[in-house]
Each structure stands twice: as C-alpha cells, then as structure tokens.
Amino acid sequence: MHAPEYMHAPPAISLLGTPFLNSACSLGTSRIRVRDINDAFKELGRMCSMHLNSERPQTKLTILQQAVSLITSLEQQVRGQLNVLPY
After folding, report:
1. What residues have CB less than 8 Å from 67, skipping those under 6 apart?
2. β strands within the chain, DSSP E
3. Rounded alpha-carbon distances, angstroms, from residue 62 to 14, 59, 71
4. How far apart are CA 12 and CA 15, in angstroms?
5. 2, 8, 27, 70: which sits with the fewest CB atoms below 10 Å from its CB?
6. What is the pTM of this model?
7. What region holds the BHLH domain (predicted)?
C-alpha cells in the first residue's frame, strides 16, 4: 500500500513548515483571539449596562471603567452585609 502522491511532494512544492504557512496559521489564530476578546467585551458591556442602567455608547475603555465601578460597588455591598450579619 502506497501513500498518496501529495504525501511525496518535492520540498520546493510542499508548504508545510515554511514561514509562509506558519505566518498564515498565526494570522488565523490572531484573528480568532481578537474575535474572542471583542465578544467578551460585548458581553461585559451588556452586563455593565444592565446593572448600571446605562444606555450610553461604550468603548472598550468605558466598558472597563464601568466594570471596575460595578465590582467596587458590589464589594461594598457585600462588606456592608457582612457587617450587619449576627455572629
């Protein structure tokens, strides 16, 4: 049983392991990573808008600022509740 012809391609034709193919794979991976980050920002922005009752347009910077504000507020609420609980 013989391997298919493409498995025996001469080195000049085979792109596997070449800088061209490696950079193409890196570009694809980078695009996926950027898409995933942007999707996460959209979700975080939705959550912040919902909790802060804000309809303002959001940049990535404002989303992060709102998230910090929301987290700080939630921390204060939790600490306040812990101080009220009987021991």
Report:
1. 44, 48
2. none
3. 48, 5, 14
4. 8
5. 2
6. 0.63
7. 21-74
CA distance 44 to 35: 14
Torsion of CA 37, 40, 41, 42, to 10 degrees: 130
| Residue 29: C-alpha distances to residues 20, 38, 53, 82 (Å) | 14, 14, 36, 45
Find where tokens 């975080």 sit. Answer: 44
Give me the average pLDDT of each 10-residue run along the chain (87 residues): 55 58 78 95 96 90 96 93 72
CA angle 9, 14, 16 (to 5 degrees): 130
Residue 13's φ and ψ, nearest 5 degrees, are -95, -35
8's tokens: 């025996």
What is the distance of C-alpha 83 from the center of its chain? 36
